Amino acid sequence: MTEEKSSYHHGDLRAALLGAAEKVLAETGIEGFSLRRVAREVGVSHSAPAHHFGDTQGLLAALATEGFSRFLNAMQARQRVVETRDARALLTASGLGYLDFAQGSPALFQLMFGSERVDFCDQALDRAANAAFDHLAQDIARLRGVSPYQDDAAMADVMAAWSMVHGFAALLMAGRLKPVQAMDAPAREAYFTALFARVAP
Amino acid sequence: MTEEKSSYHHGDLRAALLGAAEKVLAETGIEGFSLRRVAREVGVSHSAPAHHFGDTQGLLAALATEGFSRFLNAMQARQRVVETRDARALLTASGLGYLDFAQGSPALFQLMFGSERVDFCDQALDRAANAAFDHLAQDIARLRGVSPYQDDAAMADVMAAWSMVHGFAALLMAGRLKPVQAMDAPAREAYFTALFARVAP
DNA sequence: ACCTCATCTGGACATTGACAAGATCAAGAT
DNA sequence: ATCTTGATCTTGTCAATGTCCAGATGAGGT
């Protein structure tokens, strides 16, 4: 974190831009996001980001890629504090991690799932997104004892679990789940856990 | 639909702007949406929309309001073609209508649920959104025989149903439900129906 | 010492949202 | 018949933005 703004070359501008971009995204939201503002935040010229990310889509794609990585971490973090190795408890933990991420980084969550500004043709992004989803698939595989990629019923479990968590998270972030929004964090978790149990009976 | 561009006053500019706005939204998406482009589409000066809607947020709020109205219509339309009066069949029909709307107007769907550019403080918008959700609540009420607003278990059913449909629709629109996207329309409907049945056992 | 090339700067251009002042016109008041 | 009022729409303007382009800078290899 040592400040060194003497040199013409920044040293690690790409990482600095990504960090600033996340800050700007969290502050202004997707719609208010601006390349020039990100550049200002870092203290470089307005067109410096272009060299590293091409255009706005490029920067947002990189940001979303990092987002999916943290998204995966959030699910794994919840699983790490689970005492048992019970497959159902681990699946629920992933769901709670899913919610943790959405509530902790709402703008990033929205960027990853609800924006046309991200280009999923980007290979790194697609890989990161698939890795996060594969994690849920593995949870189902552990629960069912068979890989969803080889068993249609298990794949249906995956789809049901994804849809349920994501719908709950998205509606909550959109402010459309008023009865749930009135709850405090522990009550909300318990409520979600009960709902989530329906998809993996 | 008679063209009359002779007069200085348009006659029903507000409606014309709303129609053009929906067209522009569908063509360019939310991020590419532009007030000036809408004005151009109607053949009117670039700041004419401001008088009717204030600013961009105002127009999008009006657009989202109309969207929720059609959203409700889509669910009701599916229910109308149901032969039986079976409560479960009617709930499923609502879910399929939910999907119809999302797939038929993806940009509008995204505007209504996933954009910060819409101001839900707008009363008309909030009323339209609540009306659409109340419809699902009534489906559950018919199924359970008790109003969700008076019974916590029934409200949990509503939350589960909302989360499931919305998650399925949102992930499908985001291109994240690859196994489902490969299906044709009838297969997709059958698949969703099977998933949806889990939340109302 | 020189070269090469990735990195970063500064200027330019078209487009946008918002604002302000004025033009146009319909409808009621006198 | 003329005036007034207010809603509707236009024109001009400003700052901000994304993208492109030519050029400045300097690190690392030859």
Quick structural gist:
Chain A has 201 residues and is mainly α. Chain A is 71% helix and 0% strand.
Broad shape of chain A: elongated
- The count of strands of chain A amounts to 0
Find the biggest chain interface. Answer: A-B, 38 and 38 residues
Q: Describe the largest sheet of chain A.
A: none
Q: What class, by secondary structure content of chain A?
A: mainly alpha
Order of helices and strands of chain A: HHHHHHHHHH
Q: Evaluate the radius of gyration of chain A.
A: 19 Å
Mean pLDDT across all amino acids of chain A:
93
Oligomerization state: homodimer
Gap between N and C termini of chain A: 49 Å
Portion of residues within helices of chain A: over 70%
Return residue spans of chain A where pLDDT drops below 50 for at least 5 consecutive residues.
1-5
Could you characterize the architecture of this molecule?
The structure is a homodimer of 201-residue chains. Chain A has 201 residues and is mostly helical. Helices cover 71% and strands 0% of the residues of chain A. Chain A has helices at 13-28, 35-42, 48-53, 56-80, 87-104, 106-114, 123-144, 152-173, 178-181, 185-196. In chain A, helix 4 crosses helix 5 (87-104), helix 5 (87-104) crosses helix 6 (106-114) and helix 5 (87-104) runs antiparallel to helix 7. The radius of gyration of chain A is 19 Å and the shape is elongated. In chain A, 40% of the residues are buried. Chain A binds chain B through residues 29-32, 110, 113-117, 120, 129, 133, 155-156, 159-160, 162-168, 170-171, 174-177, 179-180, 191, 194-195, 198-199, 201, and chain B through 29-32, 110, 113-117, 120, 129, 133, 155-156, 159-160, 162-168, 170-171, 174-177, 179-180, 191, 194-195, 198-199, 201. The structure holds a DNA duplex (30 and 30 nucleotides).
